[in-house]
Amino acid sequence: MPHTEFRSEILRHLTYTLGKEAEMATRYDWRMALSYTVRDRITESWHDAMRTSRDGRMKRVYYLSMEFLIGRLLEDAVVNLRLDKQAEAAMLDLGVDYDAVVATEPDAALGNGGLGRLAACFLESLSTIGTPAIGYGIRYEHGLFRQTFENGRQMEEPEDWLSQRHAWEFERPDVAFEIGFGGEVHEENGRCIWTPAEHVIASAHDTPVVGWQGSWSNTLRLWEARAAHAFDLAAFNAGRYVAAAEPGTLARTISRVLYPDDTTEQGKELRLKQEYFFTAASLRDILARFEREHDDIALLPEKVAIQLNDTHPAIAGPELVRLLHDERGIEFNASVDLARRCLNYTNHTLLPEALERWSEGLMGRLLPRHLALIARIDEWHARLNPGRTVTALEHGQVKMGELSFIMANRVNGVSALHTELMKKTVFSELHALHPERIVNQTNGVTPRRWVLSSNPRLSALTTDRIGEGWVDDLEQLSRLEDHVDDPAFLDAYSAAKRANKEDLAAWVKDSLGEKIDPAAMFDIQIKRLHEYKRQHLNIIETVALWQEIRDNPNADWTPRVKIFAGKAAPGYVFAKEIIHLINDVGRVLNADSVTSKFLKVIYPPNYNVTLAERLIPAADLSEQISTAGKEASGTGNMKFALNGALTVGTLDGANVEIRERVGADNFFLFGMTAEEVVERRRVENHAARAVADDPRLARALEAIRSGVFSPEEPDRYHGVVANVTGPDYFLVSSDFSDYWRAQREVDAAYRDTAAWTRAAALNTARSGWFSSDRTIRGYMADIWDIRSSRAFATAAE
Ligand code: Z16
């Protein structure tokens, strides 16, 4: 279609949907008009896909997740529909700056980090592959908080993505369910009846998720909470205006905010309400759809595959049993069996503080029937497995990990190492009882967003050399290996990286006022702040390097820019101190006229998907330095490798598999293994010993401790230093020397530009396996038992 037709569609939406004249239109208006125009193109393929899956009675995947970190949607849709040339040309014709318009879209930040972003990549891959799927979550009014820095300290402000209209969603006033809480359970003719004390309405909002080339689209259905009777007219008429609106306000609280915790779990009543709210609404929707399409409930496991993204929707087990047994009268054992064959559970962490547990008291108050059913599920499991010791309900607590495992057909880990550790640690007993249940599905990322759209230069070069088949068959990147000894290819590869770095440097100058040299190595650590991820190891090494440069400023140092980005959970004091320290160190180093040409520290605030898209294509070095055994997988690590950054990292999570694939020569390994970590913790005073053995570490810590970076408050970092030299649970001190050694190898390697570029290109060429398309195919084969996708759709049941 010519871009002139595209242009008139945009104008039509501007005029009739937005009600604006072109002369008066703002960038917001243009973005909305463009978004509606693009959305129109998705809608037909979306309806076709839904009709195909309905008419073909196809099995569907239902991905239940508290988080979907989808970011911006316009550019993604434009790229997947291959409308980029047309859209740009049409906007140019209209005299509108396309990039500026795209940049006005707020990120949909409905997630904390990796778990939520994984869900978003999975939905896109499911659409690209053409597998019928619905993602279910919560339509949070406020996504993850907006981070600012005040004198280097993190401040949190509410995020407000819905203050503008959300161009991509369709409200479904016809799809609403009443979700109950509290109340009583009584028996009537041998059947349990739950009479909740309170009800909230879950109402659906759908966003189409379009796959590569637009041939299939799936649905992201997000539930909004509202009151059954939002307004009390009697109170209003009596002049009690605030009280009159109260029922609505209370109910809406449930979908008001995303909990800002990555990994650490907190037992809050509202959180449990959110979990039950979206899980119950989703299951009712799933059963209603099933019952429209099939008339035999025994077919449920053949037609419905439910994936629980972590334990957050774990109440799905007892809820599905309740819907089948209490509400449909199916015998209890048969109900459990049916439910269990539909449900699967992905575990994303082994950190004990992150495994959800609810007190029996709270569960009994909020979900009395479910508490009773959990006890019965435990009995059922015990009967089938005599001699077992594991139960979901124990010592007055409901353990959601155990409940999820017991109620799941398959349980999966997210990297090979993580899956093995799951078998050996948290789920060892359940694994012994059910040795076939745990499977591994190493995470992946969508190449459409994380290469094609975010790194157009690398994409153009790749397509020029190997054709564009790589976009939905990422292992074709291996064909780039034929080119890694071609100087012309290497020149083009490094020119693309260089141009990406220049773009980033310009953005840093504009937005932070700091000048960085695109010739320097861009060394990037971007992820949530957590002690196990060890941003403090990175900044301590930065301090030690700064001290050495100052000692010997005329030596031939390899220039580096250390870039950090990431948010700390608002209540995580230690993580916030690390942020403050990084900013304080940056302030001193960037102002040091002796060292700043060799070393700078940059920390842009408010890390989100959009910022990741900007940073990753410009990276030379990817920091993946978690304490071994703690990072379940990581997915940023994959995005960096694909975009030609070399990794400095530990043998943790998917780093292990990345290194196996890209080759040990193209990966800077350091640190203890997961087993060595466990051993080292048993050494008395391990941290103090490490500090005593490494004068560099001792000197860097002393500078931090004595206030070199916080002269206005010299003891500001006493706590941080006391931790790292004392208990040091995450072994920052014990891993420091080897990290330093690896970093100096990085320095030396970076100086050989040709060899570095070749290694970077090999990272790209050998990372094709980390596509989320591969991960989804793995789930289809090993978890969901789905062999059909759009290519195999049949009309027969
Ligand atoms: C999360 O993002 C992750 C784990 C978790 O328990 C909670 C949240 Cl919000 C992350 C893991 O830390 C990361 O290693 C992994 O790559 C990601 O989930 C996706 O599996």
Automatic annotation (TrEMBL):
Pfam families: Phosphorylase. GO terms for molecular function: 1,4-alpha-oligoglucan phosphorylase activity. SUPFAM superfamilies: UDP-Glycosyltransferase/glycogen phosphorylase. Its EC number is 2.4.1.1. It catalyses: [(1->4)-alpha-D-glucosyl](n) + phosphate = [(1->4)-alpha-D-glucosyl](n-1) + alpha-D-glucose 1-phosphate. Its cofactor is pyridoxal 5'-phosphate. Keywords: Carbohydrate metabolism, Glycosyltransferase, Pyridoxal phosphate, Transferase. CDD domains: GT35_Glycogen_Phosphorylase (cd04300). PANTHER family: GLYCOGEN PHOSPHORYLASE, GLYCOGEN PHOSPHORYLASE, LIVER FORM. NCBIfam families: P_ylase. Belongs to the glycogen phosphorylase family. Phosphorylase is an important allosteric enzyme in carbohydrate metabolism. Enzymes from different sources differ in their regulatory mechanisms and in their natural substrates. However, all known phosphorylases share catalytic and structural properties. Allosteric enzyme that catalyzes the rate-limiting step in glycogen catabolism, the phosphorolytic cleavage of glycogen to produce glucose-1-phosphate, and plays a central role in maintaining cellular and organismal glucose homeostasis. This is Alpha-1,4 glucan phosphorylase. The lineage of its organism: Bacteria, Pseudomonadati, Pseudomonadota, Alphaproteobacteria, Rhodobacterales.
